[in-house]
Amino acid sequence: MWECLKVIYLxxxxxxxxxxxxxxxxxxxxxxxxxxxAKKFQQADEFLRHALEAHLTASLLTFLNISSVSADIxxxxxxxxxxxxxxxxxxxxxxxxxxxxxxxxxxADHMYNFHRSFLQMALLYEDLRDAIKxxxxxRIIQHWRMWLLYxxxxxxxxxxxxxxxxxxxxxxxxxxxxSYIVTHNRTVNSSGRPGHGKAIDMAVEHHNLVxxxxxxxxxxxxTLHHLKMISLAAHMLHDAAVLCDEEVFxxxxxxxxxxxxxxxxxxxxxxxxIDSRATCRISQRTLPSNRCFTTPERKGYDIALSxxxxxxxxxxxxxxxxxxxxxDEDHEEIDFLQDNET
Length: 342
Known about the structure:
Blueprint: H1 2-12, H2 22-28, H3 41-63, H4 82-97, H5 110-133, H6 137-153, H7 157-173, H8 176-184, E1 187-188, E2 198-199, H9 200-216, H10 224-232, H11 234-247, H12 260-275, H13 296-305, H14 307-324, H15 328-339
Antiparallel strand pairs: 1-2
Helix pairs in contact: 1-5, 3-5, 3-12, 5-6, 6-7, 6-13, 9-11
């Protein structure tokens, strides 16, 4: 999930003068802890979700012909029904979110295409988070199909190879039993509560952080036995830290905006998007850098169909197969080390 977040930042960061770009919105709201590299997951994830809410709100206001967030939209409440709200949401989704792109046309609006592409990709990221939280393996696999194109477009070589490998194995190589295991064993829920699933790789990284923190405090007492005991106790160390936080009433920043500061930031973003008309269609408009915008799906699809990428991918897999070959002596040495740990 973190890699998907990084891909969004790489695709939509742009310059600070580009209305609606992540760089522009971070400068507007003084989010100095957010960068294009998205190295701090918590801050990058929170800011992306704030930017998504702003883009979505501004786009919906434009769709409803409402001039600003503070505009008076009071009406007869009797005319607002659940059916009308559903119909409005459906029209918005069909006409804005899923409408065909016009990037190949001469009068294309590349600023609007940038905004809409960000909406689509950020909403896809939100759905991936939801699929992981609810441990929906088949839905996560469907995401890999789409994110493969995004990995290709952003030149994330390792991840596009992993995604291609996974999809090819599920389709043509794995048995039904192994495909089922790979599909449904992608998350872990250590709390046991519904809606609290985590990606296994992220859970592992959390435990690695606990282990590394303990090891840094070990100083010269660090031995292989000490390392092994700390790694086995990682769950208990984490639970102890959580308990201590609760006892001293410690608070942490969540991924949702809790403060009025965040609400003000989102309103500032919405106003900026509406004032710059980033959510409106304007014929023959280019990006501020005077260039056209190509959607990441289009970029990724073109790369996936190229013979050059396929040749590099197959060659890379051959090298991996050669590197993975190990002898019986290698396994015996590993077993010997494990049996003689003190």
